[in-house]
Design a protein that fits this description.
By secondary structure, the chain is mainly α. The chain is built from 25 helices and no strands. The longest helix has about 35 residues. The two termini are about 40 Å apart. About 5% of the residues have low confidence.
Length: about 500
Amino acid sequence: MPLVFLLIEAHGAGARSVLDLVFRPLTWQLLWNTIRLTAVVTLLAAIIGTAAAWCVERTNLPGRRIWAVLVVVPLAIPDFVVSFGWFSLWSWVQGFKGAIIVLTLAVYPLVYLPVSASLRSADPGQEEVARSLGTGRIATFFRVTLSQARGAILGGGLLVALVLLAEYGAFEILGYQTFTTEIFTEFSAANVPAACALSLVLVLISLIVLAGEGLLGGRGRITRSGPLAQRKLPPHQLGRARWPVLAGFTALVLLALGVPVLASVYWMFERGSGGITGGVPLLTAALTTAEYGILAAAVATVAAFPLALLAVRHAGRVRLMLERGTYLVLAMPGVVIAFALIYFTERYTSGLGNNTAPLLIICYGIMFFPLALVGVKASLARAPVKLDEIAASLGQARLAVLFRVTLRLTAPGLVAAFCLVFLSAVTELTATLLLIPTGVQTLATQFWEYQSNLSYGQAAPFALVMIAVAAVPSYVLGRFFDRSAATSR
């Protein structure tokens, strides 16, 4: 629907007009800003996420189970809250430099989680064979360990890149102009043709990213070579490197988790309750946020199950196209999806549903459908098809097999998908600003109103509650990835 909306608007504006908008100097500047930031942050997130995962899973790092939780918790903090924490304390954290620091700290868990699970599932025999043939530890790490985790690294990097392409709030706070910030500005100014032209360029970039990940992915192998591969490798001894590694983990957690939390606490006590008035109570905003998040997570998870079943149980090019095509939504700014829904409701339902909760929930479901698909697919891939076949051979109808066998086996993945969508929905900003019913506020929109007016003291409590609300699904997701790897051994 969002892509059709963009094509309709582009066609209405005329090919010549769209080309003029695409090839203007501003577009090239936005292209450079977007690509260089996406490339740098994705690379840094891949390095930090992979290094942290290896230290936690493969070394004798002291307190490794505690660190495994702490390095995931930043996933619960919205990117715009991380930006608020840094920029409100240090004004030099802005522009390209500030965006690199803030976004890297915000998104590296997207790489850490799949790589950590991949390292726990990998075949230890391959590393032992490499070492027995005289390959050193460093060479074994790059040739074997990273090769086994390549698919997870690329998959996490893909999520990081798509999230960055669609990010708005963090860049707006940091004063860094990208396609998304300019698209929001053009839509706000009712310059729909320019906004749609820029959105189409963003979609093209996303297609290139997806194609690149598809070409590079799939080469790493984590299959086990035999029954003896069930045992785990003894952890690498850090030796003298123990204290530098501990210092690195401490710095990472303090920068990614400590700064935004402590900044919110600081402003809550420093500025008190002064500032603008008229906002909704904190509890009301929290309940509204939770309600929207639960409904959106349920919609997206239920909708993702049939496509995940098709993707895992049936091969073919059409299946691959359907599956990969859904990831384009991740790179579309929420404002594009929101305006697409507004366009179609105005055109075909005479505006019925605009500025209502159901339309906003549908928007969330569209935006975060790919995230639900990831969780459901991961669980379906581990559910043995033979159990379904055995149930069918015993006279069970297809629906009975689905409910009694398949759904029970995939329940952990469904819960993980639900949590992932809930986590994203409760921290969504741009689409919520456009579609939220009149007189209603979520934690994100009320926080945004306060911080935009520099009422940091009033914004801080909403930031802290957002972190608290999102922390629970983040913990569940961490447990799901841990359990996923454990059950595959």
